[in-house]
Amino acid sequence: MSDPDRAARIVAAARALVGVPFRLHGRDARGLDCVGLTTLAYAGAGHRGVVPDEYGLRSGNEARARDWLNAAGLKEVSRAMAGDVALVRAGPLQLHLMIKVPGGHVHAHAGLRRVVEMPGQSPWPVIGHWRA
Which stretches in the chain have pLDDT values below 50? Predict the structure, then answer.
């Protein structure tokens, strides 16, 4: 599968999950967190990788998050495109994953208690982007 095809499938899979309830460590349509959303969106494009399960809602260990993304078979990229995973700092001790889509991003929003698509740039500082 070419990169544009894979990216389109990731975006479509992420957008199909908009509205799913937020649930910490959620991995299916009954509830998702940001890791679950990323896992399902990438699985929708045929990607299989290691998924971390020992993390809390508040964990600011950037090196550990980078290790998890690399272990999942993703590579850090310097220029983001649709379908990429964005690692952001949502708070002083909180890291968060989002899927970049045309015109914005899809993510599991703990405050809104569901997966949402938000237009525009990330409201939080972006640490980096990863791609399969």
Answer: 1
